Amino acid sequence: MTSHVDQQIAARIAAVRTKTQQQREARGQFAERRAAGLEARKAAKLRRRCAVCDRPLGKGRGRACVRNCGTWLCRAPHRPPCNDVHGGQCPNRPTVEAP
């Protein structure tokens, strides 16, 4: 038979284990949310770069592909322009069939 003190100690130990387990689960959930947020942030940063020359695009400094493929191109005055280079690589470019 266990004494009253032993029962109290066992109850406290069980409470601490439960609390520790809850904290561990909360930390795991927080880590998952943080990882998802970091992935979203990284994807957003990559979307703000030129698809051809990989230069960063400031707010309002880029333009979309004229064929609506979803890529963004810079307006930097370098040769050849990114729009011309991307035109040959665009997945929405018109196909020309050989005769």
Please render the helix and strand layout as text.
Blueprint: H1 4-47, E1 62-64, E2 72-74, H2 82-89
Antiparallel strand pairs: 1-2
Structure keywords:
99 residues; mainly alpha; 2 strands; 53% helix; rod-shaped
**Derived structural class:** mainly alpha
User: Gyration radius, to the nearest Å?
Assistant: 29 Å
Helix content: 40-55%
Major sheet: 2 strands, antiparallel
| Overall body shape | rod-shaped
Q: Element order, helices and strands?
A: HEEH
Low-confidence stretches: none
State the oligomer. Answer: single chain
What portion of residues belong to β-strands? 5-15%
Terminal CA distance: 97 Å
The total beta strand count reads 2
Q: Domains counted in the coordinates: how many?
A: 1
Task: Report the total helices.
Answer: 2
Strand order of the largest sheet: 1-2
Mean pLDDT, all residues: 87
Protein described:
53% of the residues lie in helices and 6% in strands. It is built from 2 helices and 2 strands; from the N terminus they run αββα. The model has no long low-confidence stretch (mean pLDDT 87). It has a two-stranded antiparallel ribbon. The termini are far apart. The protein is rod-shaped and about 95 Å long. The chain has one domain. With 99 residues, it is mostly helical.
